[in-house]
Design goal:
Layout: H1 10-13, E1 22-23, H2 27-36, E2 40-45, H3 50-60, H4 63-72, E3 74-79, H5 84-98, E4 105-109, E5 115-119, H6 124-140, H7 142-158, H8 174-180, H9 204-217, H10 220-235, E6 249-250, E7 258-259, E8 262-263, H11 264-281, H12 284-300, E9 311-312, E10 315-316, E11 319-320, H13 328-334, H14 337-346, H15 368-375, H16 379-397, E12 405-406, E13 409-410, H17 411-428, H18 431-447, E14 458-459, H19 470-487, H20 490-507, E15 508-509, E16 514-515, H21 540-554, H22 558-570, H23 575-578, H24 583-594, E17 597-602, H25 606-613, E18 621-624, E19 642-647, E20 650-651, H26 658-666
Helix pairs in contact: 4-6, 5-7, 9-10, 9-11, 9-24, 11-12, 11-17, 12-17, 14-16, 17-18, 17-19, 18-19, 19-20, 19-21, 21-22, 21-24
Amino acid sequence: MNLLSKASSPYLLQHKDNPVEWREWNSETLKLAEELDKPVIISVGYAACHWCHVMAHESFEDNEVAKLMNAHFICIKIDREERPDIDQIYMDAAQILTGRAGWPLNAFAFPDGRPFYAATYFPKDNWKKVLMNVAEAFASQRKQLEETANKLTKGIQDVDVMNFDVTENTKFSKTDYKDFFGGWINLIDRENGGFKGAPKFPMPSSWIFLLDYHYYTKNQDALDITTNLLDGMHKGGIYDQIHGGFARYSVDDKWFAPHFEKMLYDNAQLINLYSKTYQLTQNSSYEKVIRQSLNFIKNELTAENGGFYSALDADSDGKEGAYYTYHFDEVKKILTDEEFKIAESYFGLKENGNWEDDQNIFYKAKSINEVAQELKFDKNKIKKDLEIIISKIKKNSLNRNKPSLDDKILSSWNAMMLIAYIDAYKALKDESYLEAAIKNADFLNKNLIDEKLQVYRNYKNQKASISAFLEDYAWLAQAFCNLYQVTFESQYLERFKELTDITIKKFYDSERGIFYYTSAENSDLIARKIEINDNVIPASNSVMLNLLIDLSHFYPTSNYSNITSQLASKIHQKIYKSGPYLANWARGIGKMVHGQVEIVCVGHKALEKAQELQHLYFGHAVYMGENTKIDLVKDKRSTGDLIYICQDKVCQQPVETVAEAQEILKNL
């Protein structure tokens, strides 16, 4: 019997009508496998995954395949976004065995969870062969499978191990920090932006590091590399030129053809990146991307309660990208002849399509100036006409079937989006962005953090059901830290500290000097994983490094500084070679070696002045308002409006104007 109709995950619910007798991961399911002496299939995916849909249609909806699976296995479906802890374990198994990783992920394991085989997508006939071979091996070669499972389990447990037995903290210097960039040079695609090769993922934390690096070292190349990436992306098909928002990645090396699913975490981090770069450059193209992307978030991924949904699928009508791509003649019918000439030139539309199946992906093939020169039109007219063109195509898309919505709400992804709204507010001074951030914070406080500071991973159907992971605690803490600095509301600062302290208690291993991904309370898996490498989402340990550095400025204690030193020492040998995969770690080390500036604003206009200062990019600054619980602020209560700029808790003479403060900050 298929039991997924009771699941909360939209991905699991997609499989509730499969003839496969799917179950959720829980102790009852594993106990059943043990009682029946059957191996388990652990099938992992997510709602917006195109190839997950392909395998589902080919195999899991097929009665013959289902009969094989049901006869020989206990079948478990996992939403990797709800249970990243399980996904990490079996993804490591696939990586160790095959050298490949991705989704759908299919693992075979003993009832206690020890895997003996794992791989990704299988066509139907191959999947049937695998099922028969595994069933036969489980019946006749159990001893060999046990040996494989034991070795593989040990490999999974050891894969994260670095030099955790280091007893002395290794310190970085400014020279060390300056050398980090050297390992990146040969990886950069200077023509198209981003890193060389395909498929191409945005990797936002890499470029935010380069913004910091430019700020600290004045290296212009670091900024130029970042703006080249941002220009390449917002001109490409990975950016939705009609509706706003970014797809998960580009299948080519030019940012042209996207894998069309839109994820909340990608868009949050990219809005963050474009906002920070706008603060440095004041590039109006970046402002447009920020506003369009936040309109997409507001229209498509925002719940009435202030929470943010997880994703839009890549597919609609059973076809990848069908909602976003158009035949040449379709566009022609929507627009006037003159509008179509502009659209054809600007978006690179081709009669036989610029993509597959005669379809066209909208991308910025030419600049407005180039189109004006080609068509002999005034460029201001083209700008206005493009707005009309986009509006008409957007209106036409209402007649199409939308990609399905993954409407679960995840703590860490919501925190990322909260941070993005804050950064967009700082960059563009749009009050509606701050209002959205505050509304989301209120939602998170009410629904995903209980009175005992237990955080939950997910929220669906007015219920939170899964205990949170390090990723959730870390991003939530950072979000409340950032929200305090643009509101000076003490409740957010207190929540920042509370969440950080409980995270240390639940996840920190003081002997190893590192944070586990799962808490000690959740120990039912075969391995307790540790996130080290930054990827499309920064590693939760690197997020902890950065937020602990921030927290130590508000609450300077030896405990926080000791943990940051221990964390930083763990990647000392690796950071020069790993480049982008330790980019968020490098950001934290930049704060440590260059020092952060504490900006204390007091008086009736304290918040107004702090917000004005944050409109520009001062990557090394933390902001404090009048609050007697912060040691640095206690003696700075004033009837006047003053700005104190401090380093290492030592403050310069206060100034009265934002312009004076900006001048000091630029020279530090």
